[in-house]
Amino acid sequence: MSSILTNSSAMVALQTLKSINSNLAKTQGEISTGKSVASAKDNSAVWAISKVMEADVNGFKAISDSLSLGESTIAVARQAAETVTDLLTEMKGKIVAAQEENVDRGKLQTDVKALRDQIATVVGAAQFNGLNMVSGTDDVNILSSLDRASDGTVTASNISVQRQDLGTGQGTFGTGASLAANGTASAATVADTANTAIVTVADTWAANDTATLTVAGVEVTFTAAGAAVADVGDGLAGLINGLGLDGISATGNGDGTLTVSSTRAFEGVAVSVGETTAGDGSVEITTINGGALGATSGTIDERAENIAFSNAAAVNEGDSYKVTIGSSSFDYIAGKGETMEDVARGLKIAIDSSGDADITTKVVQDSSTGQWSLKVDNAGASANFAVSGNADGTASGGLFGLDSIDVTTDTGAVSALDNIETMINVAIDAAADFGSAAGRVEIQNTFISKLTDSLKAGIGSLVDADMEAASARLQALQVQQQLGTQALSIANQAPQNILALFR
């Protein structure tokens, strides 16, 4: 049936043309924007995901900037630590030269002071954007990542870099909990009193009987002329004295006994006896270190007293330890990450810095237990000896004691040689730690760069238009549009044909 009121064919052609035009407009939009999902209207779920990922990309760009800043800051600190290491090594050369007595120690001290001042200049200038990582003890956090959980929660992650204090400050002694139990002094006083061994010659001696006495690895032999035990004891004492052993002497007591004395500060002295007799003669060590022995061998203790530090106790930043010798006190306040070895070496440096020629020190570790001890020898008058400690102090600088190095005296030159090794190790450890941290930051920065590229690629796969497909689709839709227009034109001509029926 034909109708001039309702043109069904035209309506169908019109709807088809509208659909073609709509698709054509969408395709043209993809081509002009390059995106298949340009707004939430196009695909709300995909658009929302892409926007979250775009926000993360922007965040990672800021993180990359933070990592680059941190990398530069650490590089400055590492270079400073390496420079300080080189300067300390050069200073060690001056200190080694000062061990000789026939050198101008005054000029060497001038060189040491110049190097010390240069170290202070390097440490003070080693900052980047106002941050100095070779001064102070607070950790520095470098923003390294944004971690998004499955529930959408975002957490910032940091790379924590520990500062390496290369300052020379003494620190502030703590007033917190007592740490006295962490260190034990071997005696209440420290003095120049020699330690001794009593050797007893007894019984009957015949002519040509021999007695041997070995002290510090050197053996002497006395041949008896008769039965007098006093002659044997006095003879052995004379032979020992004739050796000229450093810090070792012997005294014949005129009654068949002799006293072997040792003032060696940090070395025990082995003593042993023996005899070859035709009769009943005998030699034995009856007393050593003040205690009964009754044996053929033993060891005279070193003269120095010691402070043994606990193996079990932890060392926290600000832990403060004090050694008292007579009327003088010497402090060291531990820094972050230090151990009892550091405490012992810090106290050694503090004591050596006093310049007291009578006081010498040494840090040792027990090979069987691993326990660290600070040994203190006093070649002067007897002095009180004690150790104490408190928590919650302000840490000493990593190069504590550098300012007090003095090679103009024998005592100062000797102590400086030992202490400069401790300081060199501190600087080396600081440079190594900065190097490790720099490597980690660099790796993270590279990863963030690659991760950002991956996120961008992922966003593109979600929202970017397939330009090849869009181009082909555009051409097809343009042809469909032309055909749709012609179909609508034909459908609109149908009512005109009805006029022919009325002619």
Automatic annotation (TrEMBL):
Residues 4-137 form the Flagellin N-terminal domain. Its main location: secreted. SUPFAM superfamilies: Phase 1 flagellin. It is found in: Secreted; Bacterial flagellum. Keywords: Bacterial flagellum, Secreted. Residues 417-502 form the Flagellin C-terminal domain. Belongs to the bacterial flagellin family. Flagellin is the subunit protein which polymerizes to form the filaments of bacterial flagella. This is Flagellin.
